[in-house]
Design brief:
The chain is mainly α. About 75% of the residues lie in helices and about 0% in strands. The longest helix has about 30 residues. It comes from Diplocloster modestus. Keywords: Cell membrane, Membrane, Transmembrane, Transmembrane helix. InterPro entries: ABC_transp_permease. It is a multi-pass membrane protein.
């Protein structure tokens, strides 16, 4: 138990050091480009928190990123790299919108759960394809999930161009859903932030509770450690892998539903430009430490919202702030470089050496 706590503490310290080094490097690059780093950091903060609209834009991204990150953490915990969450996101969004515009007369208390359930089921069935290939045939999931993303996206394109067509719309999209199918807006106008954030938080709590407080979570951890041993003690490892993948993809579908019913009110062609991968990055950023996933999700949302504000006020390209997150992931993965004991030991040696030199002088 003490060893586990020590490992978690070391991971947290390594993430903090990676955060500091990334922003220091970011500031150096800004200075080299001829800008004031302090002003850039101020405008970055202002872009995320400077007004109701800015903070609302941050919350819009946070809803999607937190839900996707929670979904990805499940399969990452079992050693399955679920890169197919973008496809789940698309299918969940489209099939969450479908009941909302096909059954417009249902009350809000019925249509919203029904829509999200449809998105969850379709996305889970989609995920089962790659799950079966991995669990029963040991097919590499990185290949199958990436390829299935294209299948899901092109299928959605076909549906909104040929089946669920919005008449008179200049772009391919489904018909708009009725107001009673939309989540209520938060008092952060003119942003589109909605009460869907509470569903995202519930998804995170569910994943956390499932991972650490249930028998199924115990099975996930055992299968991830040693699948063959799990089979010998009666845990059906293949079924656990399949169920975990389906659940993860289903939650990715819920993320798509929250996007449609919370922001757009319709499913639009190519509405997501690899947005689901931001959730995956949020998980990688904290080395799949589920307790830190909300913080990493909020941080990425902040860089997306604040980067736009920084670009507007200072002229510094927002693409520059987007390099901070990959740098952090790179630094977090460099465990030896960010061994906090060695780091602080090195700093201590420098201070001791300087003190000795001063005494000699």
């Amino acid at each position: 138990m003490l060893k586990v706590k020590s490992e978690k503490f070391e991971t947290t310290i390594r993430i903090v050091l990676a955060f500091v080094f990334s922003f220091v490097l970011f500031g150096v690059v800004i200075a080299i480009c001829g800008h004031n780093p302090i002003d850039a950091f101020y405008q970055l903060f202002r872009g995320g928190f400077g007004s109701k609209f800015n903070f609302g834009s941050l919350i819009e991204d946070f809803i999607m990123i937190l839900t996707i990150a929670s979904a990805y953490s499940l399969t990452r915990r079992i050693g399955y790299f679920n890169l197919g969450l973008e496809g789940s996101f698309y299918l969940g969004a489209m099939f969450s919108a479908a009941p909302a515009f096909l059954l417009p007369d249902l009350p809000k208390i019925v249509i919203i759960p029904l829509s999200l359930a449809c998105g969850f089921i379709v996305a889970a069935l989609y995920g089962s394809i790659c799950g079966i290939l991995k669990a029963y045939y040991n097919v590499n999931e990185a290949c199958t999930t990436i390829l299935m993303n294209y299948v899901a996206i092109f299928f959605c394109d076909f549906m909104i161009n040929n089946v669920w067509v919005s008449p008179g719309s200049p772009i391919p999209q489904t018909p708009y859903v009725q107001e009673n199918a939309m989540f209520a807006k938060l008092p952060l106008s003119p942003s589109r932030a909605s009460t869907a954030i509470f569903i995202a938080i519930l998804v995170y709590i569910f994943v956390y509770f499932l991972s650490f407080r249930t028998t199924f979570g115990f099975k996930i951890r055992n299968v991830a450690t040693n699948a063959r041993y799990s089979d010998t003690v009666g845990i059906k490892s293949k079924r656990v892998v399949l169920a975990t993948v389906m659940l993860s993809c289903g939650l990715g579908g819920i993320a798509g539903g929250l996007e449609v019913l919370g922001i757009y009110g319709t499913f639009i062609q190519n509405f997501s430009q690899n947005s689901a991968f931001q959730g995956i990055i949020a998980c990688l950023l904290v080395n799949n430490n589920l307790a830190l996933v909300p913080l990493s999700s909020f941080f990425i949302s902040f860089t997306r919202a604040g980067g736009s504000g920084m670009e507007y006020y200072t002229g510094i390209s927002s693409a520059l702030i987007y390099t901070v997150t990959p740098l952090m992931i790179l630094f977090v993965s460099m465990e030896k470089m960010f061994d906090y004991k060695r780091f602080f030991g090195f700093v201590r040696k420098i201070f001791v050496r300087n003190k000795e030199n001063n005494l000699k002088a």
